[in-house]
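Sanity check. The docking grid for nicotinamide-adenine-dinucleotide depends on where the pocket ends up, so I'm generating a full predicted complex first rather than guessing from homology. Inputs follow.
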Amino acid sequence: MKVGVLGAGTMGAGIAQVASQNGCEVVLVDLNQDMLTKAENNLDKILARLVEKGVVSDDDKINIQGRITYSTDSKDFKGSKIVIEAIVEKLEVKHAVFANLESIVANDCILASNTSSLSIASIGSALKNPSRVIGIHFFNPAPLMPLVEIIPAVQTSQETLTSAKSLIDSWGKVTVLCKDTPGFIVNRVARPFYGEALRIYEEGIADFATIDWAMTELGGFKMGPFTLMDYIGNDVNYAVTESVFAAFYYDPRFKPSFTQRRHSEAGFLGRKSGRGYFDYAEGVIKPEPTKDEVVGKQILDRILVMLINEAFDAVFMQVASAEDVDKAMTKGVNYPKGLLVWAEEIGLKNVLGQLEALFAEYGEDRYRPNPLLRRMAK
Ligand SMILES: NC(=O)c1ccc[n+]([C@@H]2O[C@H](COP(=O)([O-])OP(=O)(O)OC[C@H]3O[C@@H](n4cnc5c(N)ncnc54)[C@H](O)[C@@H]3O)[C@@H](O)[C@H]2O)c1
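Predicted complex below; grid placement will be based on this.
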């Protein structure tokens, strides 16, 4: 089967690798020859490491590389069953690209976008046959992260949905079905992990290291919110928050934080700039958390109930099934447990009680408990 991937950056190169590892013939296209060369060299290094570790054989390596063609010409997509687009996150550019793709491939070729923040319906509007558009949202790094969100737009046909989902399933990925709404599942439900942590810091309840300690040591999360934001990049994480906030018509639940904005403006972007919330310069010792279990538990509980409230909202608004919401958070961002299962464990009445207390104290909409949570707690 021939698969086209447009854009040879971080995501496109990873998606091409996944498709080829699963036996597909891949054409990877980018405007920029340097990006193609970089992608080709990177794949060689990645596969050499996998051979060393005994994960793939020398023959596998040759075959995986042999199945990928690198090109600067989209016409080479001719004959593809599906093209997955992973270029810059700009709607006008994606529109032009999708219209052009349609003039190259056959009428039954699926045209998918890996967009994180644009609506699939808006991307599909550039097509004469929009029933073939779909969102196929991989996580970074695509070869390692099991989750893929599958997002049909209002124009998408059942046939497109079924074929796209079964192809990605056949690549060994964990797929979840998601409505075409801002942030899809993961980037919507995860917002409070960052936003509430920043708010707790801004209120002076604890410093970065202590909040991270509470979430990792007491909560079992692999990384604390500030370490994770430093890893993602404060500029990138802030931009996602801002775009989700705007896309939800400025719902206060998603309000961005001044602290993150200022860090981003100052160039404290995280690991990539050498400094974010923490200083990554050589020899600098990471600050010690204040290991007060009572405060730590308050921090964990507050962030956790906010995450659970978002998970309930996603189910309430039919964005995805409860099962898929839990799958998305455990397989896409490595949460230690699905949020809805977690809510059952600590008790829905308990979760509701904590949110009601926050809402009563602050009087802010951001803390309003979700109606589905209320109903189920009853
Ligand atoms: N980086 C992530 O963590 C991540 C995760 C999930 C989804 N996404 C989404 O995936 C897409 C790509 O993100 P990325 O991080 O890989 O970007 P990137 O900047 O690493 O790569 C984008 C590539 O697209 C190429 N390009 C730009 N315009 C093009 C055009 N008209 N035709 C062909 N090639 C073109 C660029 O030369 C570049 O190589 C975006 O829509 C983004 O929202 C990113």
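Relevant for the grid: The chain has two domains: 2-177, 187-377.
Also worth noting: Residues 6-12, 30-32, 35, 86-89, 93, 97, 114-116, 138, 140 surround nicotinamide-adenine-dinucleotide (CB under 6 Å).
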